Amino acid sequence: MQPNVEMPPRTPDANSPALHLQGIGKSFGGSTVLKGIDLSVKQGEFLSLVGMSGCGKSTLLRIIAGLETPDCGSLSIEGRDVTDVDPSDRNLAMVFQSYALYPHMTVRQNIATPLRMRRLSQAARLPVLGRLLGARGPELREIDAAVCAAAEVLQITPLLERRPAQLSGGQRQRVALARALVRDPVAFLMDEPLSNLDAKLRAHMRDELAALHAKLGTTFIYVTHDQIEAMTMSDRIALMEGGTIAQLGTPAQLYETPANLTVARFIGTPQMNLLPVEVDAGGSVNLQGRATGMHTSRSRGPAVLGLRAEDLHPDPEGWGAQVARIEQHGADRFVTLDMPQAEGGRIIMRQYAGAQNAAPGDTMAWSFAHARAHLFDADGNRRALHQRDQVAA
Amino acid sequence: MPRLTRYLPHVILTLGACVMLLPFYWMVLTAIRAPAEIFNISLWPIPETFSAGRNFAKVGERVPMGRFMLNGVIVCGGILLVQVLTAVPAAYALAKLKFPGRNLMLALVIAALCVPMQALALPLFVGLAKAHLLNTYFALMAPFFLSVFAIFLFRQSFRSYPDEIIEAARLDGFSEMEICWGLVLRASLPALAAFAIFSVVAHWNDLYWPLIVVRDTALAPPPLGMLYFSDAESGADYGALMAGATLVTAPMVICFLLARRQFIAGITMTGVK
């Protein structure tokens, strides 16, 4: 988290969590979607909920928004228990995957709607009668000023009189953001907001969202299945799997020290290489019957060694494999090696483009940076790994 | 050959349309012919003696056609208003809200579509008679206030409304009624137009139910009025009778022509997707 992020002025106590979830559980019909989620979101934090589809991340977001009721557990926003509070009284703003703009309203009316609903009485909102009742002039002027300010932030002022159908995907996205922004919420909830955009625009909006977060200093809760989005924008990531949080931490923590195989598989491109290894009675980790020079403290048995592509390097003393494919990425290249026993039947090594080139079909011996290897036990949980000299201590 | 295959469907449809329109054409033709020509089978549109004036004048002087029309407007308008007021929230609930028993409710709605009006006529008549409500506008309208057809039609149409917009509206503080009337129905205006035409045509043309519950000429909707008229004339003056029928039919045809586009959009939108 950036140290100089501005805290929202509304906050009574900057140290209390913006959102606190305790033991949230939910099932639909027979299937359990969330299994007792505990999560605390700090003020001004950008927290991503990531995971494969069906992991429960969207359901969790909808429970936070109040669109679903949890079967058990409680949810508080800025210290106030809101488990049974209506969605509109939680002061959260949500940006939907399809943007969910009101199709019959202009952009200006769309952005004004959250404020009209909050500031005007039900009678004053009526189409004709509301105007006759009068006494809403000052509110309307305030609302209009807020709409203009939000449009300014997202640079959509020229679009204010258009209707959603006349806008491109990226423009609709901005309008949806402006509509969320205008109500000055405790937190923004975003449900895969970039997934309907093309790749180039997505990268651009990623930058804009990160900049918007830095500018507003408001809490963001961001659901995505795209680990790159999560890695590039988040202060912290909650990686979900099967209705639980597999790991909660900063992007660097998830990348450097994945707590289990789920996280190891999900975070990082290309995917972490996973190789079956054997731990012998002395705690030595053996790959293909050869000692790796690594030790672990717990009992013997099968385990999985995790190696990132950038931690592999050619080594005449190492393990031999055949080069299957070489992919040039400009500054570096990915060398795919056939390893039938590895997950996916192959491992990928990242090399600088300047390194000596191999050709498909060649045999290449490889090894890895010991300090950066990961070990997972048979249950998929992370296990401590030492180099030989550290074990003696 | 390709030209033939392109135009053939149009030729067949045109022939079909002619068959459907023939009775109406005959009706208008009879309305402008003199009594002597009534049984002339020629379809030539210009009669030997142009008697439209005489026939329509006769309708005007013998029958309170204005009164019948007004009754028709009151009855059809009242029925349509209450049908929409009741069916739209019901359809919204069935299409978009989650509650226990929803599927059972929907099954009941579909089952009720299969019950013919005639099966209910006797109990309804007895009920209205016991309540001393026969010979009232209420008796003409009440059995049709709840339209399962409307519920079904609107439900099909509402189902395609995006859930995310409804959820956004809930977060913005819209009440369920505001969502239902202000957002969802607004997007289904073609379905509303289609239903309005179905409903108004059905009740404007209905003879069966008014015949059962109304004896007072002052309450008779147009078809029942026409029946009184033909009785009074002992059914002999076909020219005047058809002039009356033309007047009764005209508002519906004009209505349809005005709302034609919405009507067709409504039918295709709510049909099988």
Give a quick precis of the structure.
The complex is a heterodimer of chains A (393) and B (273). Chain A is an alpha+beta fold and 393 residues long. Chain A is 25% helix and 33% strand.
Please explain how this structure is put together:
With 393 residues, chain A is an alpha+beta fold. Chain A folds into 2 domains: 19-256, Rossmann fold, CATH 3.40.50; 271-391, Nucleic acid-binding proteins (OB fold (Dihydrolipoamide Acetyltransferase, E2P), Beta Barrel). Helix content of chain A is 25%, strand content 33%. Chain A is built from 10 helices and 21 strands. Chain A has helices at 57-65, 107-119, 129-133, 137-153, 169-181, 199-216, 227-233, 251-256, 261-266, 388-391; strands at 19-28, 31-41, 46-50, 72-77, 80-81, 92-95, 187-191, 219-224, 236-241, 244-249, 273-279, 284-287, 290-295, 301-307, 312-328, 332-338, 346-352, 363-368, 374-376, 382-383, 386-387. In chain A, the strands form 4 sheets. Chain A has a 7-stranded antiparallel β-sheet. In chain A, a hairpin with a 3-residue loop joins β15 (312-328) and β16 (332-338). The radius of gyration of chain A is 26 Å and the shape is elongated. Residues 1-12 of chain A have low confidence and may be disordered. Chain B is an all-alpha fold and 273 residues long. In chain B, α1 crosses α13, α3 runs antiparallel to α12 and α10 (189-204) packs across α14. Chain A binds chain B through residues 62, 65-67, 86-88, 92-94, 96-104, 113-114, 117-118, 122, and chain B through 162, 164-165, 167-175, 183, 186-187.
Entry keywords:
heterodimer; A: 393 residues; alpha+beta; Rossmann fold; OB fold (Dihydrolipoamide Acetyltransferase, E2P); 2 domains; seven-stranded antiparallel β-sheet; six-stranded mixed β-sheet; disordered N terminus; B: 273 residues; mainly alpha; MetI-like fold; 75% helix; globular
